[in-house]
Amino acid sequence: MTMETSIKMSLMDITKIFSLLQPKAEEEDGCQQLNEAIAENNHKRLAELLSQEHYRRCINSRSGWGIPSTPLKTAAAHGHLHCLDCLLAHGAEVDSLDVKAQTPLFTAVSGKHLDCVSALLKAGADPNGSEYNNCSPVLTAAREGYVDILKELLCYGAETNVRAKVPDWASNATTCRGPLYIAAIYGHLECFKLLLLHGADPDYNCKDEKIISRIKQSNTVLDTCLKYGCQSEYIQLLIDFGANVYISMAVMDKTREKGEAIMLLLRERVFPKSLMSQIRLAIRKYLSTAHKLDSIDMLDIPQILKNYLKHTT
Q1: Where does 55-61+69-133 sit in CATH, by number?
Q2: N or C, where is the chain less crowded by C-beta within 10 Å?
Q3: For residue 243, what are the CA distances in angstroms to 28, 205, 310?
Q4: What is the pLDDT of residues 226-264, one digit of tens each?
Q5: Would you kindly state where each structural domain of the chain is located, as residue ranges?
Q6: What is the pLDDT of residues 197-228, one digit of tens each?
Q7: What fold characterizes domain 135-271?
Q8: What phi and psi, each to the nearest 5 degrees, are found at residue 69?
């Protein structure tokens, strides 16, 4: 096969793919009218349209310039909750994808529309978004500091140790960073703590052999917090949640200032954790492994101990 033939076949494949993505003219017209009603936040008009079979058939179709969107994604992008509820009530596909593999939930998170995020999750949306999308709702919320949205995602079982998905050829140290890294680097302490409370690994490190083979060193969250000069509160949280404090001294030597963060680390090395603290770590580790961290309140123990397990005292 010649290179010219190969190029022609590739162009044919691309053309075929785009032709499959393009809706029929009749569907596109119907979808546009649905999207117009949504853009105007006219949920009564939307309900009227969806009462007709012609428009119900278009409920999961895509239309619009740039990145064609389904009506549900349009509602999520605008934060129009009543329209979103109307679409869901008429059978809109909750995890429909656009050409960038973005779900309506991902769009609602990006737009900081908490009420729409909650409605989509209640309707069964995958809290992790699409496996085909490079980013995820949790990574977006952690980066932007959307605490309430992040809490909602985590309460519905979103993955706390997720990382960005990139091609092998683009793998580097940045790609192996998860939500904890992102929250620390962008200075979102409440998001950082929330992730740890929901079971994020305080020693999280990339385990992908393909990525590790392409970078000089894959660092832990504690390494990153020290290198980026994060406040001592981040270090204390990592210590409280059981991070390994015996990291390379070379990392500490490279830190410009021997400030409070370094002192916390050195003190933790000298003075071992109390028995109570070790028991808390053991119980939380067991519950996390069993995916039952949210069942602490159901334990038959005094409230003061429940608070201790939840790090609220």
Answers
A1: 1.25.40.20
A2: N
A3: 53, 12, 17
A4: 888 888 999 999 999 999 888 655 455 555 445 788 888
A5: 55-61+69-133, 135-271, 274-313
A6: 999 999 877 666 665 566 566 578 888 888 88
A7: 1.25.40
A8: -120, 150
